[in-house]
Every structure is written in structure tokens, then in C-alpha cells.
Amino acid sequence: MNKKKLNINQVKRFLFKQGLIVIKNKKKNFLKSDLKSFYMAGLASLFIISFFFFLPVFFEFKKNIIIASKEIQNNSKSNFKKVLDGESLTKSNKIDEGLDLKNLFEDVFKFDDLPSDTVRLSASTIEQLFKDTDYSLKDVRKTKLVKPIALSLLPEEIKKIENTKKRKNLFIQIILPLIIEENNRIKLDRKKLFSILNKNHNTNAEKNWLNKKFKQYGVLRKDLSTLKVRMDEIPVSLSIAQAAKETGWGTSRFALEGNALFGQWTWSGEGIKPAGSNINETHKVMKFKILKSSVRAYQRNLNTHSSYKEFRLARAELRDNQRSLDGLILATYLDKYAQTGKEYVKVLKQIIKQNNLRDFDDVKLLPSSIQLKSLI
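Now predict its structure.
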């Protein structure tokens, strides 16, 4: 062969003479053909059409589900952090608004109809009673159980007990079962409320019960959301701290003469006029027939009065975040309870800490009925 440049036909003839056959590569030619361009253009068009078709759907999903969920979660965490830090909370809706005073304390003052032969036991008799029944605060802190001993009156001699620790312990022993008993009553009501709300149809008895609770908590327009916020417990530690502060650990005139553990004011009806008050001041300290009614009135006051709306909102935030009701946290929102404001809150927290009162927040009352047994 010459070294001249050969064309494809000459190569074919030469190979044919040698007994070889040249076959055309169809796949390669196909890829090089115009069909390849058409095929690729079709794929590209399909991709572009699909992309712009599903793009609005994706953004709508992100807006309604992902972003919305993120905002709800962030708001919840933000509110909860405010509760833990004791910051002010505001409601964006009409939940827990307004108050109907007509039947608010009807069940509290029913105790006034009780026989007036209540006996005031001496301090020594009460101490012996507690000893005979093995009721001590040391055991309560350990076992988290308290004996259901309900006393109606404080002993007159409590103010003469010079040993501060002894006086404090006796005071706590007397009011602790009363506070837990009233919390249990609310707990049972709250349990029944949620049971009713989870039903599609309610009986007439359940509807009558709801109407009764709307009146007890001063709920306007039969608003169930407001009832859920208001019908809740007060931490035991906070209740004891306020009772201790308002009565000087049971030694005040209001506590001994009027069974007033929490210094609630009244502008009508019976009460005790504070010593040294101005002649123009018309308020009195509410008096009660027994200690139990004072505890119930106190709980009803915190659960309904507009001054403690932030307290209830903070409590609801703790509930929503599956946290226990913490007396130290919730005390922050009781600055309107006394004229001293923030200083009052500071004192309450000191009382809780110095006396380890949070030990009693998870204490259970030994049941006196099958119904109460379910709460342990």
C-alpha cells in the first residue's frame, strides 16, 4: 500500500478483499443523529414543566405546615422561658376575661350554716394528737404522705410558743392537710371537666354540673377555655408561704379571731377592722367560721380575680409544657397581692426557700374515701 492518504471506500475495498466485512455501528449513529436532540429536548421539557408545576405546591406546604409548626413551637418555648424567668405575659385573645361575682363565694360561706359548737383545742392537745397518730413533718417529707387530720381552729397558745421552729412546724402541720384537701377537690373537678370535654354527648347531670362550676369560678358566657384556666390547683408551698406571711405563722389577730389565713379584704359583710387603719378606709379583713373556708376562699380568689390573671396564665404555661406547678416560679406573679408589690414576692420566695416548703408540693393526702384514693 502507498503512503498516500486513503479514503473510507478504499479501506472498505481493501478489507473486503482480505475477507473482512465492515458493519455500521447503529447505536453510535443514533446518538449522533437528530433523534438524540429530540430525545434530550423532550426530557428537559418534562423536567421544567414538572418543576414549575410542583413549585407552588411545595411553597404552600412549607407555609402551612413547616413554618406554621415552627412558629407555634417557638412561641411556646418563648412563653415558657418568660414564665421561668418571671417575665410579664400577655394574652392575645379573650380567654379568662371578665368575672361574675354573684355566686363566687357561695360554697365558701355555706360553712357559716354549720353548728357553732366548734371546740378550740389547746396547742399541747394538738401536739399530743399528732404524736399519737404518728404525724410529723419529717415523715411527710420522707413518705410524701400526710394524715387527713382536719382542725377547724388554730390554738390560742400558738403565739406563746417561743421556739420558732416548733411554732412553724405546728402551724404547717395544722394547715397542710387543709390545703391538700382543697387542692384534691379542685383536682377531682378538673378530672371530671376533662372527662366531659372528651365526650361527644353529655348528660343533663353533666351539663348541670358545668353550669354550677361556671358560677363558682365567675365564668362569663359559659366559656370552657376560661373554666379550664381558672379551675386549677395552687402549689402547696406557695399556699403555706402566703399563710405564714399574712398571719405571722398563725399568731395574728385575724388568724385567731377570724380564721383568716390569707388576709383577704372585704368591703361588705362581716370582717375584722385592721388596727391603725384610717377612718376613711372602709375595707376589713374577711373572717371565716373555720380554717377550711379560709383556704377555699383564698384559692377561689387567686383563681378568679383579674389581679392574678398573669399568675393563672403562667400556671397554664407550666401545664402546657408538662411541668409541675412550682411555687417559686408562680410567686413571681403575685406582686399585686400586697401593697409592697415586688418586695412581697421577694419575701414569699425567701419563706419557701428557707423552710424547704417545696418538699410539700408533691405530698398526697391519705385517702378518706375510694374517690380520693384515685388521686394517690
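The first strand starts at residue 145 and ends at 146.
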